Known about the structure:
This protein has 686 residues and is α+β, with helices and mostly antiparallel strands. Helices cover 21% and strands 32% of the residues.
Amino acid sequence: MCCDDELSPEAGEALARYRALLAASPLDWGAEAPDVMLDVLDLARRWGVPALGPVLAAMGEERRVDRAAALRLLVAGDAALPPGVVVVDVLTERVRYGEPLHVLDRSSGPGTWCPGGVLVVVVNDTPHAVDVTGAAGTWTVAAGSVGRVEVEPKPGLGALRAAAVRVDLSPAVRRVPVSVLELSSAVPVRWTVVDAAGQPWAPAGGRVKYDVHDRPFFHAREATLEVPAGVVRVTAARGMEHTSVSERADLPAGRTTRLHLEPQRWWDGDGGGWSGADLHVHANYSGDQVVSPHDAVLMQQGEGLDLMGLVAGNWHGDEIYDQALVESRLGRPLRHEYGTTAFGIEFRNDLLGHFHATGGHTAPARWATGHEGSSHPWDWPANAETAAELRAGGAAIGYCHPVVRPFPPDAESARDHLFDWVIRSVEARELVVDAALGLVDSIDLLFSADPSGPAELWYRLLGCGLRLAPTAGTDVFLSFSRAAAFSGPPGSGRVYAWTGGDHDPVAFSRALRSGPVVVTNGPWVRLRVDGQAEGGRLDGPAGRRVHLSAAAYGPHARRLDVVTAGGRVLGSAEGDGPLAVSLDLEVQEATWVAARCTGEAHPDVLADHAWSHTGATWLDVDGAGVRREPDLAFCRRWLDLLASFVRKHGRFHDERQQADLLRTIDAARPFYAAGAPTSAPGTGLR
């Protein structure tokens, strides 16, 4: 199955319903409780995420600001307006225009793509409501409020009237002569096409999305576009294993120009037996686009992503986006040219944490808990129950976006950092419990936030002897066009495992534990211990010496660290070229070692900065694994804080539910007890 005509009837009906919901209720699809974040993302489609700084600052920790207030912040003062935006101040009778929106000479021709119509924002600071009248009809802006209307972008827009102010809309668009651009590459790639004014263009009927750097893109192997004559800049990129290429072209009016661009591969993961995966991708998750399996697979192929985990999950209520698609494909991954698409589940409890389940063949009894207004509003049962259920069905369980703020330096600081800052902050509070119970296989270090926080939590769990694989799940929403990292392409962060080139999700999950693992958003990093690749266990007597050799390379690598238990750095190297560290370590007690590479911002890194990390190699002593008391004590305190947090903030139908969840927390305590057995729980991937 690589085409939409192979969809199950239920999945096809779901896509048709999504399209109807999008037409009737843009962005939230009419299926969600009111959410201010949707309002902000709607504004981002026009202004771009970087311009929303004042709005995001005004939201604060409570994440609250209404759309009218956000619009007021965006149009305040004399800041430049986005193309096609007109601001009318009724009180001062002032009209301001952004740069004209380019419209092809034959109006809305088949190759035209625009980020929306002409957006008219009316600021009414008068003491009375005002009527706004134009071709689109009449609408009212309340006193002291801000309103908006979008008008189809075409020449001859005419005018509208807001109270006594007549607004000429014709300066909001500019008719431009047409040229035809034919693009091609040997494989599907990520294209960016912008004209001299910075306006993006895409094929007829195509979808344009924006990455974390607010750059427009679409995926295709070959594409034909109608674009403005004159200078355009075309960029072709293909995931982190390639270096992007750009070309500037001066296109004559009425002519066809052909461009063939090939992103240059700087590292061949598949040729070396490595498979790269993004385990947490949403196809449809409300938004301003509806994504079919064909669309999702094209994005995966355009990024050279070996394995993509498409998950079904809810946002606030009972709507489980892509449930019909996932249920029809559970246990049946889609193999296609260039890679494999797996279908899985994101289980969501915003109080206790979210996890993704990949490679299983059964659906859960419940898909979410703890969402107010849903059919499962209670924070019960514990995540552990659903994790055990899905693992029994063959799935690998990975906690996603485990920490979204800087990680606390000690357990006591965790109260403010991870508990009681925003109550339902989606962080993985139950991870420490479920890992001890042997129900967790991996933890996502790379997603949309700074990876240093998740890495610090991972270090703590490694120090307790928990063999959790480091993974990557970008949590991108393919159905959103402009939402910073959440609208980026799949695979901007990846976990690589040594599979011999097998992209099957079950084989990949096994490889996460049985062989080398690297998590990266760009640079490549490796570690060898006494000549053996990272990821294994080496046993021996106390006092022995082992040799560590680490290497990192790629256009983004700037610093290489060899780290050990507690996050202690054993050795480092810095520079612009390939980096290497070589040292001997005397093993006095059981520990672990790994290599980490960091770098600055880079155009080909779809994150704030470059970052990569190997999995851990275990150095046992006389058969005993690592059990560091500082890390065990940290987790014991975590359990205490979690229990108190649940009593204070959990939603329960009755005391029995709360007591049941607290018993699950207590079940993890023996594992973290001082002097407990040194063997880790049965967390091995099947």
